[in-house]
């Protein structure tokens, strides 16, 4: 099946972002994509100072638009970090998924908050405004089961391993790595998660805006279960297309059967809730 990653140029005007995103979703559907993903923070600038201002409830304006366009195009639509979600007085970094009938299939709240301090390069603390999610998020399609993470979640190998144990064959991480961590780790982490678990990994970033307060690395990418990069964007706004070959995934797992050769008598990773 065909996967499309929309590397969107994000402005400060929410309505413009929504209109542009929906237009590119329609374009991707017209080119045969059955599963379409938007980037983290696709309808607002990324930064702790913006989260409260742009926050919405779910359902709300942005998710209603995503539901409508998913139904119109009869696709599975991953809404990136759809919005900073407001719920019960707390804010979450939340990704929504809608099916071909427009129904909400999954809602992933970012589990690992991005709190880092690299002296002389970048300091960022999501926990100043956001609360963490506390659950894994998966959804079924006629093609395969898909697992979700958001950006920083990708650094935690245990989370990806759980998704593999639960039968996911594709992991999608809407993300916005920056100009320090992006060139160092963006592709490396994706290839690691893919080859360790023998599944496809896709990441979808906003396009790079050098004038933004937080500059995203871009380079939305798809990695196959052999650890090979099979599709990759540059820094500009674009749509990345790739065909997900589940027969290749099955062949790789048969050739190197690591999933059945794990020494569960010596070690293990488990989902607690």
Concise structural overview:
The chain has helices spanning 14-30, 48-54, 61-73, 157-165, 181-197, 246-255, 258-261, and strands spanning 2-7, 35-37, 76-78, 83-87, 90-98, 104-109, 115-118, 122-125, 137-140, 145-148, 168-174, 200-204, 221-223, 229-232, 238-243.
Your description of this structure?
The protein is built from seven helices and 15 strands. By secondary structure, it is of the alpha/beta class. The chain has a single domain (2-254), classed as Carbon-nitrogen hydrolase (Nitrilase/N-carbamoyl-D-aminoacid amidohydrolase), CATH 3.60.110. Strands 1, 2, 3, 4, 5, 6 and 15 form a seven-stranded mixed β-sheet that branches. The radius of gyration is 17 Å and the shape is globular. It starts with a strand and ends in a 12-residue tail after the last helix. The mean pLDDT is 94.
Helix-and-strand structural type: alpha/beta
Look at the structure and name the CATH superfamily.
Carbon-nitrogen hydrolase
Question: H/E order of the elements?
Answer: EHEHHEEEEEEEEHEHEEEEHH
In the CATH classification, which architecture applies? 4-Layer Sandwich
Q: Tell me the domain tally.
A: 1
What is the helix content?
25-40%
Number of helical segments with 4 or more residues: 7
What is the radius of gyration? 17 Å
Say what the CATH topology is: Nitrilase/N-carbamoyl-D-aminoacid amidohydrolase
Strand tally: 15
What percentage of the residues does DSSP assign to strands (E)?
Answer: 25-35%
Residue runs with pLDDT of under 50 for 5 or more positions: none
CATH class: Alpha Beta
Instruction: Please describe the biggest sheet, giving its number of strands, its sense, and whether it closes into a barrel.
Output: 7 strands, mixed
What is the arithmetic mean of pLDDT?
Answer: 94
Overall outline: globular
Q: What is the straight-line distance between the termini?
A: 31 Å
Family: Belongs to the carbon-nitrogen hydrolase superfamily. NIT1/NIT2 family.
Protein name: omega-amidase
Catalytic activity: 2-oxosuccinamate + H2O = oxaloacetate + NH4(+); 2-oxoglutaramate + H2O = 2-oxoglutarate + NH4(+)
GO molecular function: omega-amidase activity
């Amino acid at each position: 099946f065909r996967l499309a990653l929309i590397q969107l140029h994000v402005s400060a005007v929410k309505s413009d972002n929504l209109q542009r995103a929906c237009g590119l979703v329609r374009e991707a559907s017209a080119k045969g994509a059955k599963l379409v993903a938007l980037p983290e923070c696709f309808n607002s600038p990324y930064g702790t100072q913006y989260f409260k201002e742009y926050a919405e409830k779910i359902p709300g304006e942005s998710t209603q638009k995503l539901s409508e366009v998913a139904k119109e195009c009869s696709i599975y639509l991953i809404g990136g970090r759809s919005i900073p979600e407001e719920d019960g007085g707390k804010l979450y970094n939340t990704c929504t998924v809608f099916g071909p009938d427009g129904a909400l299939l999954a809602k992933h709240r970012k589990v690992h908050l991005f709190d880092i301090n690299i002296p002389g390069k970048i300091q960022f603390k999501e926990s100043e405004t956001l609360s963490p999610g506390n659950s894994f998020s998966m959804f079924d399609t006629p093609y395969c089961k898909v697992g979700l993470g958001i950006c920083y979640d990708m650094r935690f190998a245990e989370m990806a391993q759980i998704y593999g144990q639960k039968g996911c064959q594709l992991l999608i991480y809407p993300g916005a790595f920056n100009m320090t961590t992006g060139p160092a780790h963006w592709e490396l982490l994706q290839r690691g998660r893919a080859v360790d678990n023998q599944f496809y990994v896709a990441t979808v970033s906003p396009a790079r805006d050098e004038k933004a307060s937080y500059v995203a690395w871009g380079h939305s990418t798809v990695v196959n279960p052999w650890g090979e990069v099979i599709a990759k964007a540059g820094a500009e706004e674009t749509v990345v297309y790739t065909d997900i070959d589940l027969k290749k995934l099955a062949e790789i797992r048969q050739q190197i059967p690591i999933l059945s050769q794990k020494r569960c008598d010596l070690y293990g990773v488990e989902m607690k809730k």
